[in-house]
Amino acid sequence: MTSRRKGFITMSGKLLGTILMVLLMCWTVNAAEKPIVIGGSLPLTGQFAETGQWIERGMKFWAKETNEKGGLLGRPVEFKIYDDESNVNKAVTYAEKAITVDKVDLLFGGYPGTAARAVMPVVEKHKFVYVSMGGHMKSFEQGYTYSFGGPPLMGEWWYEGFFQWLETVPADQRPKRAAVYTMNNPIGASLTESIIIWTKKLGIEIAIDEKYNLPLPDATPLIVKAKQMDCDLLCSNGVFADGVMTIRAAKALGYNPKAIVQGIGSVVPAWSKELGPDGDYVFSGTSLHDKLKFPGNDKLNAFVKKEYQIDGYPMYFGFGYVWMQTLSQGVEGAKSLDQTKIRDWLKSNKVDTIAGPMKFTDKGIPDPINFCTQVINGHAELIWPPEVRTANPVYPKPAWK
Amino acid sequence: MGQDSGWSKRTLLLVIVFISCVTIFPWLGPPVYFISFAFNVFIYITLATSWNIIGGYTGYLSFGHVAFFGIGAYAAAIFGMWFGLSPALNILASIPAGLVSMLLAILVGYPCLRLRGPYFAVITLCFAFVTELTIRNLDFLGGADGLWLKGLALPIEVSRSIFFELMLVLTLVTLFVANRIEKSKFGSGLRAIKEDEEVAQTMAINTPKLKITAFAISAFFPGVAGGLYACYLTYIHPDIVFDVNVSILIVLMALFGGGAFWFGPLVGATILTFVNEGLSTFVKAEYARIIYGCLFIIVIIFMPNGILEFAKTRMVKKPAKFEAAVK
Amino acid sequence: MNLVLVFQSLISGIMMGAVYALLGIGFSLTWGVMKVINVSHATFGLIAAFVAYTLFKVFGMDPVASLAVTLPSLFGLGCLVYWFLINPITRAKAVIVSSMILTFGIAIILENLILLVWGADPRLLTTSYTNKVFAIGPLYFQYPRVLGFLMAVVGVTAIQLFLKRTLTGKAVRAAWQQSEASQLCGINLKKISMITFGLAVASAGAGGVGMAMLYSFEPHSHNLWLIYLFLVVIVGGVGNILGAAAGGMLIGVITGLSMAFLPYQWINVLTFGLLMLILIFRPHGLFRSEV
User: Fold this and answer.
1) Are C267 and A212 in contact (CB under 8 A)?
2) Could you tell me which of B33, B46, B23, B34 has the C-alpha nearest to residue B226?
């Protein structure tokens, strides 16, 4: 009896031990593989749904790639994305929800600029690193320390490349008079700054400087005016809807300026897809580009080709990817998920991204980026700076067909 | 809320206990998000309840009420900027900001309140557009760039809790005023206008005066709420504080709950905010919106006069049936 | 004074306004006749625009020809919506209010269905004649605008003839002017209303295709179009079809002229400000209401 009993006790003791061991192992393994959760909100429905969905796709591609490589700090990554319905107020509360309720490990960047402007003071209070497009220069001048434009979508820098290139054009071939039409919102306001500085420098007279509120009801009068005033440079600082109207009106009225510069309307894939050859020869800026030689761009292009049948990844797909790239390098550099350590690492080290190497200033932005693009044969080619050039600029713009 | 409000002591006690619980909630250390979420619910309750004073009681559907919220936000921000107010004083500037909204409501209400029905709805909508675009076009008001405010130099939990309490007070005051109006002679005057304005006039009711008073009161609270919101968010932009969807949403909230009752908007705003939040959290984006849309259809088909009206008729009918059954 | 700019702006404004009017007549009809404010009106137009886009891209079908498919389908859809959703609420105390909430729900559903089916990308109808123009003197006429203008003329005339000349149309007007008396005459109010509503929704389809020729469109574009609808209908007088047509053109003229004379950023302020003045001084529209 007793021996049997003893045996039973030892047996059960061993069993218990094993179970405990297994549980412990499971727990440790679990802890090691517990995913890093990255949260926040994007405009997946409503006014900015198109851009929001492209950013989401870019982020998800980054996550897929990272997880295949063994994750971040050896842990898999996972997103918790809320739909803020293109509503800034919701973007703010969802950022707080991600931080305080979901207790996410990292935060991803939102869209558009107004949302970023409202979220930036909040993440500063919560001491969370926020890598996003930012809300143009003014938002980076508010003294926030946790916000990074990695790279930013900076209206103030947008046309730098274009004007730097224009400077290389012989003075007698440069445009003489500019018509500047700008949408009345933060992007528009930021875009005009460089135009004013550079036109002065290059001796181009601004003959028309008009702002309009979105939606633009009709572009015909804009073009008639520009044509009458003999403006040979058209700066259309708008988004897609008003941009395509301007192009169509210019074609219909036979207005042929030497160059057309377009705000952010021409950076979405819909531009060439919907406008066709009429969308060609339009200049714009960018912070990153599918034809840059920095490592990684080819992988993005291959993925987009396979998944969405698009040649060259759309800009916002790239943004979704690159912001995560910057953030993850901060995490790996700091070797920790401690937000302040990540911030300090990012402020004092260089990151290597698909948009090139970046070193952040105290404001959280890299050195000014001056890529200039021109749509040629339905694809945005890099024009400036010369070392990244993928095609020779077409200037002056050929007459409409 | 005294004896004449017709509340039994038990209800009163329950309400007081409930309010106290809500008051201490942010100090129990919940995640900050819940405080911010509640702050937003309070804003919607305040907006919908004050809208109801003109929209629900009088039947004058204002579709531009967000204008008063936006004006309040901008007024508070500009007071802060011009007078160099400290963040704490800037919060107090919300009250004069409310008065600015009220003043504008009187100026605009005077010609607009002569219009009826959908015409009034459209003119208020236009008013909201005009104010928004004007602010957007004027650079000294921040223009297209918006305005930044200084935030309170306190830990986020504390500053959020302070805004929670302030907005709670504003909400309670708004509800109290709406309740007082409903029970008062002024309120019955407003209801008479809703029933039939001509008849009301023949009954020696000074309808223009009544309407303008109601409109002014209903603009004051959104103005104060706007001021508080500006201090809470620390960045304002016409896109944010003049969002036309908010205008429409508060109308829907009030009517959803039941516009004839002072606590109808409270019910509507609470349900809709919570449902929307739940949907956004648990359902994929597009499907969440579709379900949200279905909600309006279902409610309006089965409860065309709001949830409260529906509940009331049910509650009245049931005992009657019960008595019949006993007999 | 710059006459070319003024006239060019005017021409383009009037043609644009005609398309607004085409989109607006159905809205005016349901509001004026049935006291139903159909907030989802523009959303139905948007569906027609997306269908036209797809038919054009896939089968190369002309957007105007695609109306042969979309209009009957939208008519059917409108009838169904009326029968199952609108009709139950016509008994409510305040039809106008309940109909707005109900159709607001419909608009949200449709917008997100479009988002699911077509995705969020902006679209543009680019046909062979999109950028064609003909010129009279120094003035240009753009084909898509002329086409939109013609569509509007046809649409408005068709609806007006329907109401004034056909038996059903007369019944519609009679039914809503004196519903009890007409019911005694054996008019089936529910059926009549259903047809009216279906017709209004179908006209939105034509308007939507017209808008798609002028502007790019996305799943949320209907919110914007809705604002134009309100403008057109209020200026023209609720329920007044010809008024709506005139209202649309007037808005086009105002926009066109102000673009010639004012800084662009004040155009919308002026449009909405003028609308407020019209409402204050002519609360029933600039044109006497009929129907």
Assistant:
1) yes
2) B46
The answer to whether residue C274 is domain-embedded is yes
DSSP reduced 3-state for B147: strand
Q: Are C33 and C291 in contact (CB under 8 A)?
A: yes
Chains within contact range of chain B (3+ C-beta pairs < 8 Å)? A, C
The strand order across the sheet containing A147-149 reads: A77-83, A36-42, A106-108, A130-132, A147-149
Please indicate, yes or no, if residue A298 is contained in any of the structural domains: no
Q: Is the residue at A328 inside a domain?
A: yes
Nearest neighbour of A184 by CB, restricted to B33, B136, B286:
B136
**CATH code, C216:** 1.10.3470
Confidence of residue B325 (pLDDT cuts 50, 70, 90): very low
Residue type, A103: K
Query: A353 has which bridge partners?
Result: A356
Question: Helices in chain C by DSSP H: which ranges?
Answer: 3-34, 41-59, 63-81, 87-89, 95-118, 143-165, 167-177, 179-184, 189-214, 222-236, 241-261, 267-281
H helices present in B234-306, as ranges: 238-241, 244-257, 264-282, 285-302
Same domain, yes or no, for A333 and A228?
no
Asked if the structure places residue B243 within a domain, the reply is yes
Domain with A253 in it: 159-263+269-289+371-388
Cβ A366 vs Cβ A150: under 8 Å: yes
Strand arrangement, sheet containing A177-183: A205-212, A177-183, A233-237, A259-262, A282-286, A371-376, A379-384
Contact in structure between C52 and C70 (CB atoms under 8 Å): yes
Q: Closest-CA residue in chain B for A124?
A: B156
> Which parts of chain C have pLDDT scores under 50?
290-291
Cβ distance of C267 and A222 shorter than 8 Å: no
Using CA atoms, how far apart are residues B294 and B301, in angstroms rounded to an integer?
A: 11
Report pLDDT digits (tens) over A180-223.
999 999 999 999 989 999 999 999 999 999 999 988 888 988 99
One domain, residues A149 and A167: no
Q: C32 at the A interface (CB within 8 A)?
A: no
* A244 inside 8 A of chain C by CB: yes
Q: Is residue C130 part of a domain?
A: no
How many structural domains compose chain A?
Answer: 2
Extract the tokens encoding A193. Answer: 């700054």
* pTM of the complete model: 0.90
**Contact (CB, 8 A) for B56 and B254:** yes
**DSSP output for B24-73:** HGGGG---HHHHHHHHHHHHHHHHHHHHHHHHHHH----S-THHHHHHHH
**Each residue of C175-184: pLDDT tens digit?**
767 766 766 6
DSSP string over C143-203: HHHHHHHHHHHHHHHHHHHHHHHSHHHHHHHHHHHSHHHHHHTT--HHHHHHHHHHHHHHH
Structure tokens at A17: 């031990």
Q: Kindly state whether A92 is in contact with chain B, defined as any CB-CB distance less than 8 angstroms.
A: yes
Give ∠ CA B254-B105-B232 in degrees, rounded to 5. Answer: 65
CB C227 within 8 A of CB C279: no
Q: Could you say which DSSP state residue B145 is in?
A: G
Residue A178 pairs with which residues in a beta bridge? A206, A233
Q: Is the pLDDT of residue A129 over 50?
A: yes
Residue-level pLDDT at B248 = 87
- Side-chain half-sphere exposure of B196, counting CA atoms within 13 A: 4
Nearest to C159 by CA among C207, C227, C208, C191: C207
Identity of the residue numbered C17: G
| A285 and A195 within one domain | yes
Q: Does pLDDT of A30 surpass 70?
A: no
Residue B2 lies in a domain: no
Q: Which of C113, C268, C283 sits opposite B129 (nearest CB)?
A: C268
